[in-house]
Structures are given as C-alpha cells and as structure tokens.
From TrEMBL:
SUPFAM superfamilies: Clavaminate synthase-like. Coiled coil: none annotated. InterPro entries: DIOX_N, IPNS-like_FE2OG_OXY, IPNS-like_sf, Oxoglu/Fe-dep_dioxygenase_dom, Plant_2OG-oxidoreductases. It comes from Fraxinus pennsylvanica. The lineage of its organism: Eukaryota, Viridiplantae, Streptophyta, Embryophyta, Tracheophyta. This is Fe2OG dioxygenase domain-containing protein.
Amino acid sequence: MEETVQIYEKLPIINFSLLHHDSVIKQIHEACRNFGFFHVINHGIPESVIEGALNVNSNFFDLPMAMKEELLSDDVQKPVRFGRAQVGCHENGVLSRDFLKLYAHPIDHFLNLWPSNPPNYREKMGIYATEVRKLGIELFGAIMESLNLSPTHLKQNFEHGEQIIGINSYPRCLESNIKTGVAAHTDHSIITILLQSSPGLHIVDRSDSTWKSVCRIEGSFEIIVGDHLEVISNGLYKSVLHRAIPSSNNGSRFSIANLHSLGMDEIVEPAAKLVDEERPKRYKGSSLRDFIEHLSSKDKIPFIHTIKIQTISDS
Ligand SMILES: O=C(O)CCC(=O)C(=O)O
Ligand SMILES: [Fe+2]
C-alpha cells in the first residue's frame, strides 16, 4: 500500500527575473532558513532546452541494457557512470532507481565521455548543463547576499567549481516487492537545481517533522540547500532532508539533479563573517573529495554529521 503523504502547501516560489530586489533576497533568506528549499520560476531557460534534456534522458534509459552496460560502474570516483541503486530503508522497504552520473564542468573535459547514444545526447544535455550552470551562479550570488555576505563572496570559486549531474530514472513497472525511489538523504552540494518530470519529490516539513510532497510547478526548478551551504552559512541554513517516492499512478518518472559545489579539493568552511563568539564555528573544513571518499567508505553516518563541531547550543 502506498503511504499517504500530504502536499506541501505554500513552499516558497522565487521569481528569478526579480532576483536582486531586496524583497526577493529576503524571500530567499526565509526560504533557505525555514525550508532549505524553494521553487524558482521565470528563470529564462527555454522550455525547448528543458524538454530536450528530458527527452534524451528518457531515450537513454529506454536503450537495451547491453548498450548502457559499457557505462556500468559502482566506482563513485568515475566522472561518467550508469548504475542501478537498490537501497533498503525502514519506512519503504527496498527503493530502486537507475541513474546516470555525469561530471559537467568544465564541460569540454567531460562531454566526450558522456553517452553517445541517443546520438543527440551530448548536444541536448550540453546545452542544458550550460544553461543550468549560469542559473546556479546567479542564484549562488543571491544566496550569499541573503546571508548578508557580499554577492561576490566565493563567486570565482563557485564559477570554477564542480557540477555533477545525477539523472534518475524511476520506471513504472518493477517486481511487485520493489518500489522505485531514492531513500532519505541530504545533498553534499552547495545547491542542487532539480528538474522533475512529474511529482515524486518529498521533503521534511520542519514545523512538524513529517514528509510532505513537493508540487510540480510547470516550468519551475526546485532548489535544494545542500550540506556545503549549511557549512558556509555556519548552520544558519540547514541542508534539507529529501527523498523521491514517485506515485505508481504517474507512470515513469525522471529527475535531473545538478549538484553545484566548489572545486574537488577546495576546503569549504563557515564564512568568517558568520562566525563570532555567540555563534562559534560549527563545522570543520571539508572538500567535495572528502564527501566522495566518505561515500566510498560506505560509512552509514551522514557526511554532515562527520564534520559537525559539537557546540553547547545547536539551534
Ligand atoms: O528524483 C528526485 O526528485 C530527487 C533526486 C535526488 O534527490 C538526487 O538525485 O539527489
Ligand atoms: Fe538529492
């Protein structure tokens, strides 16, 4: 039986075309602080680019297994890999999905490693990745402003940082005892820019600690606060616990998650301006590579817990 999950009403919606208005910076602050999440609309990425990305990924996952197998790998360090993740969780039993992971910046380094089938895969996903990256850079500046930091804080580092794209495929039909989905987690990124082909994303409502389902707003992206933004903000913003449980009524589902981080070996620390006597440093420095190594170690403790510095009050 499917668990009933309420729709998350009143999730913040940010109008990207007004991004640097004081009122929007304030909305971003409230959204990151209270929800760890917001929708973004009027972002200027053409519908055709978004449709193109969804189509080529749908075509990729439809290929016979033999054609996808050449990218099959469970080595989390690989810049391009295909796989099937089946993770057991106590709430939902085994959750399964197929995924494709693509490193995407600098794009010229990686494009020729991306799938060559369907033949327009690289072209369509290349355009999508480049457009989403521009959006990410603008949003990052506004988020820094929302923390009362300069909009250029870490700008260059972010511009040179990593972009890892996770494409998730949740097919409609699986064996009866296996559901499709992704178990609860936070993202290691600074921000994740998520595109969902149909609803299925759930986030935790912090007011009552229950799971709520995120609506799909036509043409919007979903912005997820990741662990490294939690670190930069010295805990003012918290990464949001989320999962994906597509409803079996909606047919097959895809999501494309663009995870934006600083450079692989760059140490991310709380911004000096957000550390003082009242609010001492709450996180140790860590890099994206530290996260990936943590993932390889199969340690079950969430990464963010491994970098927290214990303080007396943890509000
Ligand atoms: O499919 C979704 O909506 C979420 C996917 C996700 O959380 C991820 O790829 O990190
Ligand atoms: Fe995620």
